[in-house]
Write a structure and sequence with these properties.
41% helix, 9 strands, Rossmann fold, alpha/beta, single chain
């Protein structure tokens, strides 16, 4: 396993701002056209930087997503070895139900695999609507994962963007989602999330009210 390199400053593509790698961003959206454009820029900037990329897709098939990215001007076909596009459900729930510890290990493994393969870093994004399927994940496991992902990327700077469709998730889940992401995308721009709560504090409060 490679040693972690010094943390780089990166572009997320959709914003002029540069940030340290290892961001944990939420994208709560209700406009699919904007979302696809933003995610295309996010992935393209990772390609240009020499990163290994992961897209976990739920509302399209992987092939449809690749076609969509091509239509938006991202040359994904010639960069096929750099970008993995896979179905979100099986990726998050390889054994049929979600396990936070196993998914955190998978994220860490993907990051170190990228370094071992000669990439400068790694970034990924996941469409989170997979967890709405009955029996796949309970809220407590999902929030445990999201909160602890902050601790993981602080040590292993994988850059992550979690996509939540505001039209499909209940308001109380959206508020918890906001609590566990330090950064958020608003109207296609990256902003510091004023609702963020440090992971240890959030988990203690969440467990107390649950």
């Amino acid at each position: 396993m490679c040693n972690v390199k010094e943390r780089r400053t990166i572009s997320l593509g959709f914003s002029n701002e540069t940030v340290p790698e290892g961001q944990h961003v939420c994208y709560i959206y209700n406009d699919d056209t904007e979302r696809r454009r933003v995610m295309a820029k996010y992935l393209e900037s990772g390609m240009l930087a020499g990163e290994k990329l992961l897209y976990l897709v739920d509302v399209m098939t992987p092939e449809e997503m690749l076609d969509c990215l091509e239509e938006l001007g991202v040359d994904v076909r010639s960069k096929a070895k750099d970008l993995t596009v896979a179905e979100a459900g099986p990726a998050y729930c390889p054994k049929g139900s979600f396990n936070a510890d196993e998914m955190l290990d998978a994220v860490k493994d993907f990051y170190y695999q990228a370094l071992d393969e000669g990439y400068v870093g790694a970034r990924g994004t996941g469409e989170m609507s997979w967890c709405l399927v009955e029996g796949r994940a309970d809220e407590a496991s999902l929030m445990d994962y999201e909160a602890r992902l902050n601790l993981l990327v602080a040590e292993h700077p994988y850059t992550a963007c979690c996509q939540y469709d505001a039209r499909r998730f209940d308001g109380h889940i959206i508020m918890d989602v906001l609590s566990v992401h330090p950064m958020m995308i608003v109207r296609g721009q990256l902003v510091k999330n004023p609702f963020f709560v440090e992971p240890e504090t959030f988990l203690a409060e969440y467990r107390a009210r649950s």
